[in-house]
Amino acid sequence: MASISTPAYPRPRLRILRLVAVVVGMMLLAGMGFGAWFYFLVRGALPQLDGKLRVAGLSAPVTVVRDGHGAPTIDAANFADLFFAQGFITAQDRLFQMDGMRRFAAGELAEILGNDFVKHDRQQRILGLRAAARKTIEIASPEDRARFEAYARGVNAYIDTHRDRLPLEFHILRYSPRPWTPEDSAVIGAQMVEDLSTSPRHALVREKILAKLGPDLTAELYVNSSWHDRPPTVSRATLDEQIKNKNKDGDDNDEDDDDDSGTDTSVTGLMPGPNVPALPPTPEMFLDERPLVIGSNNWVVSGAHTVSGKPMLSNDMHLGHQMPNLWYEAHLRSKCGSVDFDVAGVTLPGYPYVIVGHNQRIAWGFTNLGPTVEDVYIETFNSDGRYLTPDGWKQPEHRQEVIHVKGKQDVVVDVVLTRHGPIVTEMVPRETRSLALRWTLYDGVRSPFFDVDSAQKWDEFRRAFSDLDAPAQNVVYADVDGNIGYQATGKIPIRATGDGSLPENGSDDAHEWVGYVPFDKLPSVLNPPSGIIATANSRITPDKYQFSLSTEWEAPWRSARIYRVLESGKKFAAADMLSLQSDIYSEMDRFFGERFVYAVDHAKNPSSRAKAAAEIMRQWDGRMIESSAAPTIAVQSRKELVRLLLEPKLGPAPRDPTRLDATVSWKSYSWMMSTVWLENIVQHQPARWLPDVYANYDELLTAAVETAVDSDATHDSNAPQDLSSWNWGRFHPVAIQHPIFGKVPLLRHWSGPGLHPQSGSEYTVKAVSRDHGPSERITVDLANLDQSTLNLVTGEAGNLFSPYYMDQWRAWYEGFTYGWPFSAAAVEKDRTHKLVLQP
After folding, report:
1. Rg of the Cα trace of the chain?
2. pTM score of the predicted model
3. Separation of alpha carbons 341 and 75, rounded Å
4. Closest CA to 319 of 199, 192, 202
5. I need a surface site. Which of 110, 203, 475, 812 has the fewest CB within 10 A?
6. SS3 state of residue 186
7. Cβ neighbours of residue 216 closer than 8 Å, sequence gap 6 or more
8. Measuring CA to CA, how many Å separate 792 from each of 45, 532, 789, 805, 810?
9. Residue 135 phi/psi, 5° resolution?
């Protein structure tokens, strides 16, 4: 019988397996190829740290020694080479950050990030930071301009030799940085001025609140001083002297030191109720949980308060978090002629010099002074486009700004310029008047930091800082001879009338700037008898000071706490300074917590939830510990108390948060001393502020607690069923992530610390929020500079795969720090890398 044969076809499953094997093999090969390409890009962008490197533009070799955290000591034969090398080395580690900072400041983000950033760019173009930067370079001395140019040449030398090895972010965004200019450095400096300026929009909000509440209640809301204030130039009288002064003057408004002595932070019982003597009356104030000007701390103590017998100076500037962190540590050395230039500290990427630190003889540290240097003027325009001045109608100037938008057509912005400054109306939602902004930045900003870095004694130091126009700073000082000092700095206007707290008529000269506060009239002190100086953004002017420096000081809680600890009589070492920088005790929150407990105890029918909350707060010692529930309950109750007080007078907040600016509401009120206003209300319990629905303040405070802990309340409450589990750290975390890598799933885990619970609050010495905190921690020991300490938030490097990208994070987060070698011998002992840049 004949047989019939069929072709031998592979089984379907076998065909699929073979296909899968081929695809997997191709994917593996592609993956290996991508991995090799990715590795090449990453490794190629890492800086050379050792050996020799030829760099065109130098006149002599420059030595760069790096320590165990990658921080460079740059040693050059002359200043041109020194600042050239500073630009080159900073670009090695931070080029993408530098480019991003200049683009952010100048309003040039849409060019690389697209249409979503046009609004930001329009704002920056209207504000005119690049135009201000251009003015800064124009007014710079020839020597300063030459140093800015040298820095720019160094950055460009790095860019030119690494076009094919740029940091990974440039490849992801598919662009290459343009050459660096001195103007780019100045615009980064201008952005720091913007970041540290109080917003002129506060004047517009205050105007609305004044129209609704009248002058008396508005004055109470916008309090600008407190009995807790500790102006650095005023030595606090002893308790005996205060009593004597009160008896002599019959004045109950002097500072009361009874509640501000000693260092004990334990809770010994409930604070007395309303029958206790009232705190001295203070002006008025605000409340917004988000800091408006991010806080900083600095202090200096004389040798009388240290174990070494020499001064110690500490500084932690609290700024917005970013990845990589803002500051770049560097040590700059050059023996040029008779000048022995030797300075170490933190630098601003993209900007030459050391900003905060020490040299061989002196040390200094900053906090923001927060002066009122931006005024809003209401201009009157006619149908011809001219505006009214005391000399008649005048044609405004115009500045054309072109915003390049990735994948879209250019956007042209016509900036209208009056005698006061640009018209900024479009930056204020639903504003119809023509608002002009006057700002000291528009006069140009002088940079004194070469002279600061070079100063060897107090007089030279003060002379250098007399040229710091903006941002105005509180500067503390110490030197190896045992002197300590304080100097307020900045160009602060004197007005014909008014203080800049409200918008003014621009058509006349009634509110014009008639000059600036003379430098020698700014608060200053050398070697105060107490041997202690501290600032933390709160009021620095003494009573009856002749000039108005700021209409909005920071609340005094941090400065009061710092003084309390430093005045304990203890002899301090560097470790004690770090402990104070990490202090998480909140006197303000403890005060409100105890008042809430007292109120619940005395209310008629408190809820069981309010009683449970009170029991948790009753045991609390005032420390904002991340594992504790009491801080969360106290803070949420305080927020509710503000709402209950303000909503009846200013109205409810609109349901649509985008319409918050449409009309005034209780959420419109935002003031850095809001907690002082609230303290005044709770202490004095004025009938004019008590809402009609409550019989007394105990019932009001109890209602605030009940609303805060009621998960079923109509407002948005996150209170858990078990209040003891409402941990502060999860409620108040820190979040730091890279702006580009943080959006890439494969890189997110390594590109930043991410989200973590944290202790502390906006009102503790360790002033922290989700988005801001200490940007560095420095302590300088003037007895032995090599015993000084410094740490950043994350690390020196901006390259994700550098060992120095995030090696300092644990120190910042867990509260320890690192040695900071300075002498030639100490730098050599700590040397990890050595690179010689050759011409």
Report:
1. 29
2. 0.89
3. 10
4. 192
5. 203
6. helix
7. none
8. 22, 26, 11, 11, 10
9. -65, -40
Residue 403, number of CB atoms within 10 A of its CB: 21
Token digits of residue 322: 């970013």
Which residue type occupies 786?
A: D
DSSP helix/strand/coil, 722: coil
How far apart CA 755 and CA 735 sit, in angstroms, is: 4
Q: Which residues contact 732 (CB under 8 A, 6 or more apart)?
A: 624, 626, 631, 632, 635, 757, 758, 761, 768, 769, 770
The two tokens of residue 580 are 């104070």
CB within 8 Å of 809: residues ≥ 6 apart = 753, 793, 794, 795
pLDDT surpasses 60 at 143? yes
Q: How far is CA 400 from CA 183, 394, 403, 416, 640, in A?
A: 18, 19, 10, 9, 47
Distances (CA, A) of 657 to 288, 667, 700: 15, 10, 26
Q: CA 86 to CA 343: how far, in whole Å?
A: 13
pLDDT digits (tens, 9 = 90+) for 546-587: 999 999 999 999 999 999 999 999 999 999 999 999 999 999
Please state, as a whole number, how many other Cβ atoms lie within 10 Å of the Cβ of residue 697. Answer: 23
- For residue 553, the number of C-alpha atoms closer than 13 Å in the C-beta half-sphere is 28
Alpha-carbon span 94 to 796, nearest angstrom: 8
Residue with tokens 């201008």: 190
DSSP 277: P
pLDDT, tens digit, 9 for 90 and up, residues 635-680: 999 999 999 999 999 999 888 766 666 689 999 999 999 999 999 9
* Tokens linked to 572: 């301090």
Extract the tokens encoding 611: 């009683």
Cα 518 to Cα 491: distance, rounded to the nearest angstrom: 8
SS3 711: coil
Sheet with 62-66: strands ordered across: 51-54, 833-838, 62-66, 72-76, 328-336, 339-347, 356-359, 362-368, 473-479, 484-488, 524-526
Show the DSSP H helices in 270-379 as ranges: none
* Crossing angle of the two packed helices 630-650 and 697-709, in degrees rounded to 10: 120
Q: Give 61's DSSP letter.
A: -
How far is the C-alpha of 764 from the C-alpha of 757, rounded, in Å? 16
Task: Tell me the sheet residues that pair with 393.
Answer: 388
- What φ, ψ does residue 500 adopt, rounded to 5°? 85, 5
Whether 447 contacts 464, CB under 8 Å: no
Residue 259 confidence (pLDDT): 38
With a pLDDT cut of 90, the percent of the chain lying above it is 82
Closest CA to 613 of 605, 601, 602, 624: 601
Report how far apart, in Å, the C-alpha atoms of 157 and of each of 96, 151, 168, 516, 820 are.
15, 10, 19, 41, 29
DSSP string for 159-177: HHH-TTS--HHHHHHT--P
The residues with which 374 forms a beta bridge, in sequence order, are 439
